[in-house]
Design goal:
It contains 5 helices and no strands. It is mainly α and 107 residues long. Helix 2 (34-63) packs antiparallel against helix 3 (65-75). The longest helix has 30 residues, at 34-63. It starts with a helix and ends in a 14-residue tail after the last helix.
Length: 107
């Protein structure tokens, strides 16, 4: 029962993450090229996931599970450090501020 609850929570959290990711990509695309940019951004975003999952068995076999999770936790630190730059908390709290990058102009 605990495993089912954990799996349900993980699936729910993954859904929330994907919704936020899609909203972020949609907010950064140029309205003139939305479909092309959205397809390109989502394809590029799947590269690390694909490479990470393809090599995970090899890394676990060489290091063990504990080291595997420590390595991948360390690999996530640069992304966490970039998060305030990409989506500042002040923009999330103030609905009038846009999350678009500076210098972005609509046509």
């Amino acid at each position: 029962m605990a495993l089912a609850a954990l799996y349900g929570f993980e699936t729910f959290a993954t859904g929330l993450t994907m919704a936020a990711f899609v909203a972020y990509i949609a907010s950064t695309t140029d309205p003139r090229y939305t479909a092309t940019q959205f397809a390109l951004f989502t394809s590029l975003a799947s590269v690390p996931r694909t490479l990470g999952s393809a090599s995970s068995g090899f890394v676990v076999a060489q290091t063990g599970w504990f080291e595997y999770f420590m390595i991948y936790a360390a690999l996530s630190i640069p992304g966490m450090l970039l998060l305030p730059k990409i989506a500042p908390l002040s923009a999330r709290l103030d609905p009038r501020r846009s999350l678009r990058p500076r210098g972005y102009m609509l046509a």
